Description:
It is a single chain. The protein is α+β, with helices and mostly antiparallel strands. The chain folds into 2 domains: 81 residues; 148 residues, CATH 3.30.1330.60. It is 52% helix and 10% strand. A 5-stranded mixed sheet has the order 1-2-5-3-4. Helix 1 packs antiparallel against helix 2 and helix 3 runs antiparallel to helix 5. The longest helix has 78 residues. The protein is rod-shaped. About 5% of the residues have low confidence.
Amino acid sequence: MTYRRTRIAALALIALAGTGLGGCVSQQAYDELRQTNVSLENRNSELARRASELEATNRMLSTERQNLDAALASLRANNSELDSLLKQAQGDMAGFGSRLQGLNGIALDFATDQALQQLVAQYPDLISYDAALGMIRFNADLTFDSGSDAVKDGARRALEAFAKILTSSSALNYEAEIQGHTDSQRISTGTAAKHPTNVHLSAHRAISVRAVLASMGVPADRLKVAGWGEFRPAVQNSANGNTPANRRVEIYLRNSTAGFSSSSAPTGGNASPDREPVPTRQLDPTK
């Protein structure tokens, strides 16, 4: 359209020039008008080319903007989904913490917690501590010889330090549940004479730890033992059963459940009126 207008304008100029000269146009004037027309045509072509390029650029930018808008909308949707998942995870974590505390029944006081952390720092190879469970774990390989329930001297020293924590003023209302664990290796013939199964070995080791703690002043009515054998592994047992991580003794601190105990029983006189007297039975000399 612009090109046609420019050409018409040029022809009009030529016509006017011809009219002014009485119908006779000089060659020079004609050549100049023709050159002007060519220049205008070239300029028009250049402007048309640039307009086409700008239009193409505009279409490209429009497409990119649409893509960016779509990507932004997708990111917002993903962010909303992630926020929802985060809130759900936080809720699950809170619920798990509540269930965990319900199972453990305890949140250790600050003084006892700090004392246990210091104990672990003193014996890092022998002991680990799980504050969420209120649990101290003894590495069985450093606590006992293979197939034995005799506590080694190094572990005895650590148990002595642990006993001091249990008898401190901050921990007097805690009782300790001592759980023995083994891996799934079969009991050897030599070991079977004293410990017929892994359950026996784990229970006997827990009893040995209890005896050490009791000998160091921890009241017997605050100490409980259990032996799980190979049935509560910390990690999957290897094919041959030799799995050091599963050979361990775990001691859980719990709020005391003791009511009436031998340590608080009256030494003489009549029984309390709100308790029935314990029935007597004939002594069995074979027990």
